[in-house]
Please model this.
Amino acid sequence: MRTFVVKALALVSAVFLFAGCTGIPDGVTPVNNFDVTKYQGTWYEVARLDHSFERGMDQVTANYQLNDDGDVVVTNRGFKVDDNGWEEAIGKAKFVDATDEGYLKVSFFGPFYGSYIVFDLDHEDYQYSFVSGPNLSYLWLLSRTKTVDPKVMESFIKQAKAIGFDTQELIMVNQ
Model:
């Protein structure tokens, strides 16, 4: 678990220093009518762009829980295949602007935050979410289930590609 946290801290530090903490990539627009109470709970990582803090991980989940103060506790967990063990990182998220906009900043240590931008969402049932970070190197498809309908995957890839994400580099996460 310690290795995961150290790698996450190092990578997030580099991102903040070189890419800006809470910026939004060109072409990415946060969803409106975002309801954090519906967003709470466990999400499965279905697809992602690779980063050192998740490299070699399967069974990745993210859990979001709203605090009384309006902040969100974020618990990321994954199985590190090479180490044959689970790793976990706990952080917090805060809204950048309005609480009904899918634009948050997340921190896993100290005062440093990175963007967490929900740019598409199943508004009706909150069953899938397309998420970007502060630049086009950060992209995730999250789902309430371990797999998604092929139409959701097709929409994710189409939107991500149109924005400028390198969809050829997507990793389909083993759940």
Notes: The chain has one domain: 2-172. The helical segments are 2-19, 36-39, 150-163.
